[in-house]
TrEMBL record:
Domain BLOC-1-related complex subunit 6 C-terminal helix: 14-108
Pfam families: BORCS6
Species, as recorded: Coemansia guatemalensis
InterPro entries xrefs: BORCS6_C
Protein name: BLOC-1-related complex subunit 6 C-terminal helix domain-containing protein
Amino acid sequence: METKTMEEYMERIRVLDALEQQAMGLSRMLTTYTDRLQERLEQRVDIELASEGVALSSIKSLEAVVAKSVQQKQSLIRKCQQLDHEMEGVMAMSSKIREIKQLLDVMEYTKRKS
């Protein structure tokens, strides 16, 4: 009976050893998977940070372009207003020239009649 108990004891030790080996293998696999997951998460963080940097840079560039466009439009409006103001004199002169031309036409017509 003692032999059977010893064989059972040895069999249990082998089973325990096998279970321990399997547990160690699973532990190594879990460590490997965890390390890979951590690497991927770090890569994703790096990509997201780079993406955020590109987005911020794009926004700043767009802001600069819009500001420049607004300045150019304001400058154009000022020039148009200035031109409009300057054209008042030209319009008045044009009106006077038209009056003079009409007077000349009347004078020429009167001269031809006489």
